[in-house]
Amino acid sequence: MFDAQHSPDHLPNRPGVGYKPQHYTSLIENPGTVGWLEIHAENYMGDGGRPIAQLRQLSERFPISVHGVGLSIGGEGALDADHLARLKHLVDWLNPTVFSEHLAWSTHEGAFLNDLLPLPYTQDTLNRVADHIDLLQETLGRQMMLENPSSYLAFDESTWSEPDFLREVSNRTGCGLLLDVNNVFVSATNLNYDPKQYIADYPLEKVGEIHLGGHDEDEDDHGKPLLIDSHGAPVVDPVWALLDHTLSLSGPRPILIEWDTDVPEWTVLHAEALRADKALSKVMS
Amino acid sequence: MTVTQTTFRDAIFDGAQERPLGLSDAIGQPAGRRFDVYRNNVAVSLSEALATGFPTIAKLLGEENFNAIAGIFLRQFPPTSPMMMHYGADFPTFLESFEPLAHLGYLGDVARLELGLRRSYHAADSTGVAPETLAEIPQDKLVDITANFAPAVSVQRSSWPIHAIWAFNMQDGPKPAAVAQDVLILRPEYDPLPHVLPPGAYECVTALMAGAKLGTAAEFGTEADEGFDLGATLGLLLTGNALTSFDVPS
């Protein structure tokens, strides 16, 4: 349900969920605490059929966040003009509340690798990412939010810290930021830094949305923990604690539960949304 | 040490290749198997996309064989756009040319059928013409009308029992008999379904889709099979919302 208190450019400071078609009926009949939905842009770029029809129905009841997973904003090459046009078409007809994409690359020399691949934080990367975001925002005619990635390794050539890099991109392009708290926890564990320091360095005033999701646990060659962002499990307790810490600094924000593989029954996903609601209520009173 | 995206991509697709230099863990040691997370993510996500898009092929080959074959395909034919709903257009031809599968000659056409169903699922919506529209057209004009088809409709001719193989694997249908089958994909609302076409119907429907007049299309059907039943074929098209309008000559 749209809340008149909220301007059309902002998601409500409520829990949202990543939309999965198997939850359609539950969402229409009784969405419980869920106040908004996020969709992956690329799944709704067909010409018609059930996906588009369901999205039309849902957009009449919920604020929608469109989350791109395929634009390759960090790609060395130019942005794919066809894909940019498809994004514009989707954003034009759906008129979602917000649009977001990733600090990552996925397309190179015409091949799409279907994963969010990492970038060195250098001046070259910064210039390229900023140019791509300028073009995207100009094309869509709206602000976008850029999301921090999960990191499994570091580039020796990097000269910027990730929070500083994101802040600079935002300053240069005027884009907002999306803060994935699970990604912070995964990267901090993998690259051995303090997640609270990362949050302290992150420009929280620019954050329009928070992501939470599950990860898998593995080990590197030296037996050190290697966490892998999977979106296929419940959010772990240390990530909930990091969310509480973040909200205590940022104040309430829209919080998304992402669960993309081994998608659970609605009640399980809704329980995660309820937990996010509880975290929000602690900072809203 | 600059790690270019060409280097990164090549090392992702070729597991035998050295991992790129210039990538480290937290304390400056080479990234090692941390890089393999990306190798694995890319291979698994593309392989899963193929298994989702070609469920009959996945069932026919079994999980292990399918993943091995998908692993070869995805390296030769990675997606050319982020539209994963269209990924695998080259898979039927690949299956046909893949030597170790030469004894399973039907795989390519079954994969084409699954591609057709997927395209139909995402095709533009349209409203089928009301069945009585045909009855309202003056008798003497009927042979000269042409038909406009819904974007979700397609036909496929095969020398293999592709519908039966699909139905046996996906719908608990009876064991396939060794016959050639022509298939018509219809999407009455949102769920595409393949239908076996009787003799003559493929020739007639293909002609109609190409813009032939109804009379001409019917002759194509009768030429192919004396017992061709135009009424039954039109009935199938109309109940499946396959036709969006007729053009009646003035």
Name the beta content range of chain B. Answer: 5-15%
CATH first level of chain A: which class?
Alpha Beta
Question: How are strands sequenced across the largest beta sheet of chain A?
Answer: 1-2-3-4-7-9-10-13
Helical percentage of chain A: 25-40%
Spell the H/E element sequence of chain B.
HEHHHHHHEEHEEHHHE
Largest sheet of chain A: 8 strands, parallel, barrel
Order of helices and strands of chain A: EHEHEHEEEHEEHEHHEEEHEH
What is the C-alpha radius of gyration of chain A, as a whole number of Å?
Answer: 18 Å
Gross morphology of chain B is: elongated
Domain Putative DNA-binding (chain B): 4-95
Protein name (chain B): Putative DNA-binding domain-containing protein
InterPro entries (chain B): DUF2063 (IPR018640), DUF2063_N_sf (IPR044922)
Pfam families (chain B): DUF2063
Name its key features:
A: 285 residues, alpha/beta, TIM Barrel, 9 helices, 39% helix, disordered N terminus, B: 250 residues, mainly alpha, Outer Surface Protein A, domain 3, 2 domains, three-stranded antiparallel beta sheet, two-stranded antiparallel sheet, 6 strands, elongated
Write the layout of secondary structure elements.
The complex is a heterodimer of chains A (285) and B (250).
Chain A: E1 15-18, H1 24-29, E2 36-40, H2 50-59, E3 64-67, H3 81-94, E4 98-102, E5 105-108, E6 111-117, H4 123-140, E7 145-147, E8 154-155, H5 162-173, E9 176-180, H6 181-191, H7 195-201, E10 207-213, E11 215-219, E12 225-229, H8 237-250, E13 255-258, H9 266-284
Chain B: H1 5-13, E1 23-24, H2 33-53, H3 55-61, H4 63-76, H5 91-97, H6 107-122, H7 132-136, E2 146-149, E3 154-158, H8 162-170, E4 181-186, E5 193-197, H9 201-209, H10 214-224, H11 230-239, E6 243-247
Antiparallel strand pairs in B: 2-6, 3-4, 4-5
Protein name (chain A): UPF0276 protein SHM7688_02810
InterPro entries (chain A): MbnB/TglH/ChrH, Xyl_isomerase-like_sf
Organism (chain A): Shimia marina
